[in-house]
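For the sake of transparency, this paper describes our internal protein records without simplification. The record that follows is passed on verbatim for readers who wish to inspect the format:
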Amino acid sequence: MDKLLIQGGHRLSGDIVVSGAKNAALPILCAGLLTADTLQLSNVPQLQDVSTMLTLLRQMGLRVEQDGHSVVLNGGAIDKLEAPYEMVKTMRAAILVLGPLLARFGEAKVSLPGGCAIGSRPVDQHIKGLQAMGADITIDAGYIYAKAKRLKGARVVTDMITVTGTENLLMAATLADGETILENAAREPEVGDLARLLISMGARIEGVGTDRLVIQGVTSLHGAQHAVIADRIETGTFLCAVAATGGDVTLHNTRSNLLDAAMDKLREAGAILTSGDDWIRVQMAARPKAVSFRTTEYPGFPTDMQAQFMALNCIADGTSHVTETIFENRFMHVQELNRLGAAIDIEGNTSIIKGVPHFVGAPVMATDLRASASLVIAGLAAHGETLIERIYHLDRGYDRMEVKLSSVGAQIERVK
């Protein structure tokens, strides 16, 4: 099993190209199930989750051609309307095949999902919405069985804001009979990126970027070309890494307006941020200042950046409070950060972090995707050597992170 070995204390300087967004690419790949025509996708990140999704889609009969960051999909020969447990257990996003299969083929069998153990992420809102659109759904032996002769337009008000729920229902509604209104829809940029692809495929969608999506169903969708949006979480992770270690790095192929809340907090911490249409420069010359925040739905501070920013707070000047409101188990990195010399206490869903002068290198273990990124940041800022185990979590969501960090001066290598 691969591990990351980091020699900390090196200043970062240079340029990094940010990859396409994992959380946009996965639903966009599933959109290939909605048409018999060809989708030509670019800026697709090379990640374990993307590989898993493409394997699942191939098993269903979707034709897939992949060349680096380009993927060509053709759904003209889909013959298996099932997502088995073996494919779904490692990646919760596989639930995103449910809406497209049901909308186009009238049935689907999808295993209940797995993924990172960061808390409860029920799929009841997906099921509720599809039932409102006329689907007959049962759950038996760990599988969702869904049937519908043709989905009917409906007004769906979800009990909570759910990104994958919004995406699933949005894809299903594009081929439904009549008008569908999705209230309390997720506003994340990745949802907007999926909507833009669907519109280019012939879907009729209004309200993109708002919490109310109105979809006029069409009888079929056609092929299209689309470039996946930049990964705002990878962007934020590298910004935190530079802020924690000091230095001067320019990130390319990304946009500052994708993560305004996180960038505001980085400025509070003392980072100097400048940006253009497709780049962000971060400079840090002093010890960071402690900054408190609470996670919330977009456009608030993203839960996917909580762990990385906590690593920064651990070596900041002062005491900070970090409150997690999205996932109940998203403090599993705290114990590992404390092994590296941090001083973090947990009270309910809030972590109280007393800044220390520096981390001290030690062996640690990644527990989930973003926790592993926080340990990389801590290792880069530590005195001495840090060995991170279970980095398969990292590979699910970061495209060759150690290669990109090495290019700007980090002493980091993948070891067996």
Observations:
- The first strand starts at residue 3 and ends at 7.
- The CA atoms of residues 47 and 397 lie 6 Å apart.
- The chain has a mean pLDDT of 95.
